[in-house]
Amino acid sequence: MRVVMFGYQTWGHRTLQALLDSEHDVVLVVTHPRSEHAYEKIWSDSVADLAEEHRVPVVIRNRPDDDELFERLKEADPDIIVANNWRTWIPPRIFDLPRHGTLNVHDSLLPKYAGFSPLIWALINGEPEVGVTAHMMNDELDAGDIVRQEAVPVAPTDTATDLFHKTVDLIAPVTIGALGLIAAGQTEFTKQDRSKASFFHKRSIEDSRIDWTWPAEDLQRLIRAQSEPYPSAFTFHKGKRLEVLAAEVSQGLYGGTPGRVFYREGDGVVIVAGADARTGRNPGLAITRVRTEDGRELGAAEYFTTMGGYLTSRP
């Protein structure tokens, strides 16, 4: 089939590479300009560079809503558009233009985690598995019929980076497998159960701020989700920003006020956590490694030389 690809960053790069390696003919690529946004500089393999290396025409757009692009698309005469990590709304006159419509590839197990940063949110929320879904695009974001979907388990120590590598490897089989079904003439696919749908916003630095009223289990997953190369989860100690690089749920139960620097446990220093910490029935968060405001990385026992005081959400 003749394919136009809309995509950005490493997700789009992997999708384009899969298409180039397939039997399909990539006739045009549309991608976003480079961004200096903290999250968009992560996994930033260039779709434009890859297309140019293979002499595929490239169009750069923030939004695909101008008449010039529409005319280029009509001239390309695609059988299908394939999109992955396209960050702005694609209007119906574009996604309905090809004979077979538009196939969107999304890194979650739809209908859950539509929208942005699905792997990070799924890890924070303790999902047992994540995956990639190829679905037909319609008027509602990430809501079209599912053509193909594959899942991978989330291990107890997985970080967001681990989940990225697990799911990015699913892009090629999910995308090319879905195109195979469409090329073979299949037109009926799996409807999404919209009662199970959830929609998440793009993460920002503010979302990495630690709230000590969260249960320790949730905080430990937040720290794994915000591990390198993502901006680290952070708190404040004595008015200065402190990044938490590694932590574990404590073995013991600790009571008191959330955020209290309380007790040495193994290699960690336990911080009281949970909205009901006053009951003494919660584990705490045993911080094991931190980064100070001036960039020093230290073991928690080296940083917290005395117990007492509080970690806070704000200076």
Automatic annotation (TrEMBL):
Formyl transferase N-terminal domain ranges (all copies): 1-169
A Pfam family: Formyl_trans_C
Name the InterPro entries on file. Formyl_trans_C (IPR005793), Formyl_transf_N (IPR002376)
Q: Where is the signal peptide?
A: none
- The record places domain Formyl transferase C-terminal at 206-305
What is the name attached to this protein's record? Methionyl-tRNA formyltransferase
Q: Which organism is it from?
A: Streptomyces osmaniensis
